Automatic annotation (TrEMBL):
Official protein name in the record: NPC intracellular cholesterol transporter 2
A GO CC term attached to the entry: extracellular region
MD-2-related lipid-recognition domain: residues covered: 24-145
Keywords: Disulfide bond, Secreted, Signal
Xref: Gene3D superfamilies: 2.60.40.770
Signal peptide: 1-19
Length: 149
C-alpha cells in the first residue's frame, strides 16, 4: 500500500472511530448557546440514517437561564413542512442533564434517534429543540440527514 492509500485508510478509520462534529444551523437558541453537536455513527455528512437503526445524539450547550424542567421537541422538516418526529424520551432532565439547569453552566444532552423501518428513504432536515420551563429554547438546532434503507 502506498502512502496515499494509507492516508485515506487512516482518515476513514478516524471517521468510523470518533464522532465528528455535525454541521448544524442554530434556529434560535434564546435561553442557551450550542457548542457542539455529535451524531454517531455518522462517518460522512449529511448523516445517513439507516432504517431500523438507532443513532446517538449528543448536544453540548450552555444555559443562560435557570430551569428545573427541560423538554425536547423534535421535528422532521420534509419539503418545508415540519412533521413531529417521535423520540423515546422527551424529558431532557433524563437525557444526560442533571436538573435543575443552572445559568452559565455547560451540559451535554444525550438521546437516541430511532429510525423506523417504515420511514421513506428521503432527505430531510431534523429540527431538535430543548425547551426550558417557560417554553423558550435552551437550544434549537437544524441539521440535514438522509434516510437510507
Ligand atoms: C458529548 O460530547 C461532549 C463534548 O464533546 C463530551 O465531553 C461528552 O463526553 C459526550 N458525551 C458522551 C456520553 O459521549
Amino acid at each position: 500500500m502506498d502512502c496515499r492509500t494509507g492516508f485515506v485508510v487512516f482518515l476513514s478509520l478516524i471517521g468510523f472511530t470518533f464522532a465528528v462534529p455535525v454541521k448544524f444551523i442554530d434556529c434560535g437558541s434564546s435561553s442557551g448557546k450550542v457548542d457542539l453537536v455529535d451524531i454517531a455513527p455518522c462517518p460522512s455528512q449529511p448523516c445517513q440514517l439507516h432504517r431500523g437503526d438507532s443513532y446517538s445524539v449528543n448536544v453540548t450547550f450552555s444555559s443562560n437561564v435557570e430551569t428545573d424542567t427541560s423538554k425536547a421537541v423534535v421535528h422532521g422538516i420534509i419539503a418545508g413542512v415540519p412533521v413531529p418526529f417521535p423520540i423515546p424520551n422527551d424529558d431532557g432532565c433524563k437525557s444526560g442533564i442533571q436538573c435543575p439547569i443552572q445559568k452559565q453552566q455547560s451540559y451535554s444532552y444525550m438521546n437516541s434517534l430511532p429510525v423506523k423501518t417504515e420511514y421513506p428513504t428521503i432527505k430531510l432536515t431534523v429540527k431538535w429543540e430543548l425547551r426550558d420551563k417557560d417554553n423558550n429554547d435552551l437550544f434549537c438546532i437544524k441539521f440535514p440527514v438522509q434516510i437510507v434503507s
